[in-house]
Design goal:
seven-stranded mixed beta sheet; binds 1-O-phosphono-beta-D-fructofuranose; 7 strands; Rossmann fold; metal-binding
């Protein structure tokens, strides 16, 4: 059933809201960390300071390569405070301004330098971790199918909460208990049949690792023929994965690691393809997909969207009643879609009646709960 009267988009104008806390507290902390991590020149430092001093939404400077796009996207919001415009839009705008301040897109010595690079580098898994992952990955092949499914999905879902080895040994029961919606069985059924699966990545580092293990497993076990791994075209929301981050992680695998070698070979062979698109750093939701991405998702057996931000962009960053049907809200998506999401913001759909009442008050933002939702 189509959702014809969606609730309002979330804004940050209530000072007590999570959205307001992100703009008011998290953004200054992000800027402070970039300033501490990089010896940026004075103009860049001033640009970053200006971003925090004045919350007014203004057009991008005329030298920004994409200022015409942002003129169009920002037209309804110019002159308003970032706290008054939709939260998701304001966050996108913040990251775009931050990249302009550091000169990421502009010609010059700072072009292409990831302002979050030092933070991402610190989160790359170590050699021991990668060896443990290799062993766990091998062990998985000998498990009954339902255990393979729950282990791989739980690891991909919880990302940095625990490594795959830990999940297999101790963490699974707890991981499952903290799932507030669990379509794992349906997800696993869809991850078969030899077609193409699109994985829309979220964070690099320890969150990307289980994604890579899942992709390797699907290809190795012959459950799918091809995987597309969709990454961001530019630094975004601090830790989101770029092509460079995927390569850095693959290079981290020890030379004798079979997983690392298989994934490298899959990239060369095209059974694993890296995909990116400007859409991934635009202040848009998946309902506004460009034709190229829509065609890819339409042709895939399944698209898996990882993480909270992709979830917000999938269902719409709105104050939905939590029992609103996931299938209805995502009915527009061009093909079967799954969301694997640790709940880190206020947006929720697809909850069974009565579930929310049993959860702690802060459950939507604590990062302690997760959802696996599938529209097949
Ligand atoms: O997509 P991720 O990495 O799971 O989460 C990103 C995220 O925590 O950042 C926002 C605040 O900036 C949250 O609302 C949001 O969902």
């Amino acid at each position: 059933m189509p959702v014809d009267a969606p609730p309002p988009r979330i804004r940050s104008d209530d000072p007590a809201s999570f959205a307001a806390s992100v703009l008011r507290d998290r953004h200054p902390a992000i800027v402070a960390r970039v300033l501490a991590d990089l010896p940026l020149p004075a103009a860049a430092r001033d640009g970053l300071a200006g971003l925090l001093q004045d919350p007014t939404v203004t057009p991008l400077p005329r030298d920004a390569h994409d200022h015409e796009d942002w003129d169009r996207w920002g037209e309804p919001y110019f002159g308003q405070s970032m706290f008054e415009v939709p939260f998701l839009w304001a966050e996108n705008y913040f990251y775009r301004r931050l990249l302009h301040a550091t000169g990421y897109h502009e010609p010059g010595p700072w072009r292409g330098i990831d302002p979050f690079g030092p933070q991402k580098a610190a989160d790359l898994p170590g050699e021991d971790e990668l060896r443990a992952v290799q062993e766990s990955g091998d062990a998985l092949l000998h498990l009954p199918e339902d255990e393979q499914a729950s282990a791989l999905v739980a690891a991909a879902l919880w990302g940095n909460r625990a490594d795959l080895g830990f999940q297999l040994a101790h963490g699974l029961a707890q991981a499952q208990a903290d799932l507030v919606a669990d379509d794992t069985e349906l997800l696993w059924k869809r991850l078969a049949g030899g077609g193409t699966v699109c994985v829309v990545a979220d964070n690099a580092g320890r969150e990307l690792l289980p994604d890579l293990v899942l992709i390797d497993f699907l290809l190795r076990a012959g459950r799918v023929r091809r995987v597309e791994l969709h990454v961001k075209p530019a630094p975004y929301f601090v830790s989101d994965a770029l092509t460079a981050d995927v390569l850095a992680e693959l290079r981290r695998f020890p030379a004798d690691s079979a997983i690392g070698r298989r994934l490298w070979a899959a990239l060369r062979a095209g059974t694993l393809e890296l995909v990116t698109d400007p859409f991934y750093c635009a202040p848009l939701e998946f309902a506004q997909l460009p034709a190229g991405l829509a065609a890819r998702f339409g042709a895939a057996t399944l698209t898996i969207l990882k993480g909270d931000l992709n979830y917000r962009r999938l269902v719409g960053d709105r104050s939905w009643a939590p029992e609103t049907s996931f299938a209805d809200v995502t009915g527009y998506f061009p093909g079967p879609v799954a969301a694997l999401r640790t709940v880190k913001s206020d947006v929720v759909v697809g909850l069974a009646a009565g579930v929310e009442e049993r959860l702690p008050a802060s459950w939507r933002t604590s990062g302690a709960f997760a959802m696996v939702q599938v529209r097949g």
